[in-house]
Amino acid sequence: MPTYNDNILCTTRDELVACGISASYINRALAGQRKGEVYCWEHHKQGKQVYIHYHSLKEKYQVLIKAVHCNKLEPEIYLKQEQVEKATAVFENLADQVSLLVSSNPEEIKYLTETKLYTPSEVHQLARAAAWLRLINEYDVKKARKLGFKSVNDFRSEVFKRCLNEQTSSPALIRFKKTLITNVRTLVKNAVEYKNNGITSLIHGGVGNVNREKTDTVMHAKLVKLASEPVKYSWEDVAMMYNDWALANAKPQITTSTVKSYLNTPKIKKVWFYARHGKHAADNEIQSLINRKTPSFPDALWSIDGTSMQLYYVGVDGKIKSDLYVYFITDACTSAIIGISIAFAETSGMVTEALRNAVDTYKYKPYQLQYDNSSANVSVAVKNLMSNMSRVHFPCEPYKGRSKYVESIIGHFQQRVLRHYSNFKGGNIDVKSLNSQANPELLAWLRKNPEALPDRNGVIEMLHDAVAKWNARGEKRDSFGRFVGQSKIERYTTIQHEQRAELNYFDRISMFMVEQRLPYPYGTNGIVIDVKGEEHHFIVPDSDNVGDFMFANDNLGEKFKVKIDRDNPDMIALYRDGIFIDFAYNKERYAACVADSQPGETARRVQFKQKQVEWGEEYSKRELEKQMIKLGEMQATGTEGFGWYDTSKYNQNRREAALEDAQNGMGDGLTDKQRRILRIGK
User: For the chain, which has fewer Cβ within 10 Å, the N-terminal or C-terminal residue?
Assistant: First the structure.
């Protein structure tokens, strides 16, 4: 649908006919309109074509036009879409023409090649970049409009888009002097510089005598060798030694700033940094980082590690000390510290105690455990415990503190909470910031006034207080510095998730029961295990909790795999062939003298002795008698073989008498009933 004076929508006679209106009716209406007989449809004429104004048509005709010609859109919207599509098609056609206008200058290619500063591919990249800049300078307003653009800015904008695409393509088709050009203004600025200075405007000023290792491989090798020395020469010394070498080998000298700039370009820095500073430092300094999402719910990941307490205290000998070690259990989702243990060194027992503290305090277990490769963490007992507690557990890469959440949490805890205490030692030895270090004058005052320091129990209470303060901190601070939002520990305890389940008492107890390496036999004293120098006897008690006669009766001498919590050896779990059998508990001990007897102990001891008799000789006699009874009478049939049945004492006596007669030669050893069954004598 065309327009008239850019604001009146029009339709043609043919378009109305296509909508189902009679052609003759349209002709009569238009003729009557021109003669002044009627006045219903506004229209105008261009050449021989008549254009009827859309707004003067009746509503029913407008509905038809929208349905047939405008895709059921309002005509104004339909026209706008057509204009945009038409303009886009024209613009794309123009943009394609722009790329065809770019051509490299052979003289510039020759000049760049003769500098010996660039590889052939780099030469062509720079020459094509110069061609784009030359194109911007050649086209003013008139030329841009003649090409079909409304303004020179539209032309330059399209040139910028093409340049950006060629810069970011792989491999890049063009390159400029410095960094990636990301806006039209910078591109035009480069074009002006190119207009004034030519191709030299694209050669970086820092190239000087050395651009890259491709410039002169010997010069490059010498610089890299000096920079990579593990004695770590200063940049001034590197420049001095290089220039002495350059004079002796007819090479150009270079300034210290050029040496430093060249060697610190990312690609070259990676070559010498490892040899100069070592693998671990280089990995942490220049290796790319993996962006990780924070775990989505509490207990998804527990990150654990130990460190020195960083608090001074006064020992029992009156000396100032800082020899305590703290093991932290942290939740990576909320940064809460949910468990700690304190000792003089990191041991497997310390790790176990910290994990137990977390489980007992909040009654949850982790989905995954993250830790380092210290000997305490990778001991068999701790690894078995971690397998009990979590679905997944494995150590982080060694010497990469960035990979452990706990490193960051401990660092922030020390600098934002522990530093509030006057006896804070400051950060670790490798901390560089003055704000992270303790005030030396304050430390000197503490040395002179040790009574101001807490004792060992006091410093332990201080640490627990610091953990509580850390956990009470909100997620953010407001403009006045106050913490706002839920605290770390509130978030840890209140966030619900389908994979979080509160542990019951039995789960918490059994979680710390770790499988022992060797099996244990079940003897007359049950299973005997030495725990921290103390001998424990574990039995599976009878239902009345007196002795283990029933279990021992079936399992005496059998060997079992055992799981035990060595810190709380109250019970053990017995397994055979990987199948759980039962729990065994510490065997009850009875007083050796009357004076030590406890209430009710005498009755249990009497009951125990009765069960000894019941399950000893009497049990043996009962079972033996059952077996003899089973042998007392044998029934034979023609088809079913032999069967064994219990018999009465009377019949058993008769059978034994017949056997005795047979031994004495007085009979065949059969009873009358047996003879009848076997049909003997008939």
Answer: C
